[in-house]
């Protein structure tokens, strides 16, 4: 996963902006927003019992003192999804979790790219090299036909993948003392778009999201909830598959990566001063100022559509996510 050479980040890079009226028309013309609302209530019910963040322990103590999967173990779980499909996910339970005297444990959902297997994504995203492998439950869900609902090529009804995430969360809540203030989403490409969709539409469940080379299709990344959510958008400057600048793709239209970050900067109440620019290996990080929720944008000087930055990015993603709490 070598990084290519390139220039520096342009804070005011050209992008295909979406006029407000066009966005409204797209949302009204789409069935996505109303249908997704029907499944969000279920996600909210799973986490609504969580007390304010100051409370040291979650009030819901219905976890299993002898969970099916032991700490430090990785297993594949078959799930009969409520949409009628048979789906699987891979779960890794952090080695620090003690079922006999449990402390609330965070959960990281990691979404693969289009037509990428769970196993391929596990290898490329390399979360097993990060502190998440010891400190969290890491879930690798499987998309239907290798895709997530954030893309125009995805199959099934809107909201089906969020309902699938809801089912997994319900299972975890039965087996483990889940820290409901620290549920995170991350993903690559189409999976990065799925992580952003959860950040867009389900901030009441997810404490933060991070997206690498994300495909931010319209209109599913429009019409977001207004509540703040920490966001990290990571992209290669010259990605040949999912353009940094957005535009037409797979019979749909992609939002530019920098525009997505600016949308979250606005939503998170960041001020109008220029972001602080700092160097990371192979690129630059933009940290927006005065935000009610951390908002960061990382642009790598690369011309590849990969989990750009390799293990450094994996560590950066987990360091960012794990510092956030809902």
From TrEMBL:
<keyword id="KW-0964">Secreted</keyword>
<dbReference type="Pfam" id="PF10503">
    <property type="entry name" value="Esterase_PHB"/>
</dbReference>
<dbReference type="GO" id="GO:0005576">
    <property type="term" value="C:extracellular region"/>
</dbReference>
<keyword id="KW-0378">Hydrolase</keyword>
<protein>
    <submittedName>
        <fullName>Poly(3-hydroxybutyrate) depolymerase</fullName>
    </submittedName>
</protein>
<dbReference type="GO" id="GO:0045493">
    <property type="term" value="P:xylan catabolic process"/>
</dbReference>
<keyword id="KW-0119">Carbohydrate metabolism</keyword>
<keyword id="KW-0858">Xylan degradation</keyword>
<dbReference type="InterPro" id="IPR010126">
    <property type="entry name" value="Esterase_phb"/>
</dbReference>
<dbReference type="InterPro" id="IPR043595">
    <property type="entry name" value="FaeB/C/D"/>
</dbReference>
<dbReference type="InterPro" id="IPR029058">
    <property type="entry name" value="AB_hydrolase_fold"/>
</dbReference>
<keyword id="KW-0732">Signal</keyword>
<keyword id="KW-0624">Polysaccharide degradation</keyword>
<dbReference type="GO" id="GO:0030600">
    <property type="term" value="F:feruloyl esterase activity"/>
</dbReference>
């Amino acid at each position: 996963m070598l990084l290519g050479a390139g220039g520096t980040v342009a804070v005011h890079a050209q992008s295909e902006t979406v006029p407000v009226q066009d966005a409204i028309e797209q949302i009204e013309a789409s069935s996505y927003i109303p249908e997704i609302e029907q499944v969000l209530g279920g996600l909210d019910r799973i986490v609504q019992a969580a007390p304010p963040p100051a409370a040291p322990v979650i009030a819901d103590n219905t976890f299993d003192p002898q969970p099916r999967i032991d700490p430090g173990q990785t297993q594949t779980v078959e799930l009969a999804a409520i949409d009628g499909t048979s789906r699987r996910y891979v779960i890794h339970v952090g080695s620090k979790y003690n079922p006999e005297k449990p402390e609330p444990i965070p959960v990281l959902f990691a979404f693969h790219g289009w037509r990428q297997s769970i196993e391929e994504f596990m290898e490329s995203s390399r979360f097993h090299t990060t502190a998440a492998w010891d400190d969290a439950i890491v879930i690798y869900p499987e998309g239907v036909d290798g895709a997530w609902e954030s893309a125009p090529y995805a199959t099934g009804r809107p909201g089906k993948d969020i309902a699938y995430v809801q089912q997994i969360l319900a299972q975890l809540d039965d087996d483990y003392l889940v820290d409901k203030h620290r549920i995170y989403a991350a993903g690559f490409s189409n999976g990065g778009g799925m992580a952003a969709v959860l950040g867009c539409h389900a901030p009441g469940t997810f404490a933060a999201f991070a997206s690498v080379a994300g495909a931010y299709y319209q209109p599913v990344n429009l019409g977001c909830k207004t509540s703040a959510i920490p966001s990290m958008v990571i992209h290669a400057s010259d990605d040949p598959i999912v353009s940094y600048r957005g535009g037409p793709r797979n019979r749909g239209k992609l939002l530019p990566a920098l525009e997505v970050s600016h949308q979250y900067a606005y939503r998170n109440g960041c001020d109008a001063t220029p972001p602080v620019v700092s160097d990371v290996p192979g690129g630059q990080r933009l940290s927006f100022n005065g935000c009610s929720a951390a908002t960061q944008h990382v642009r790598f000087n690369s011309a590849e559509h990969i989990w750009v930055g390799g293990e450094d990015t994996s560590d950066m993603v987990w360091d960012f996510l794990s510092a956030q709490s809902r």
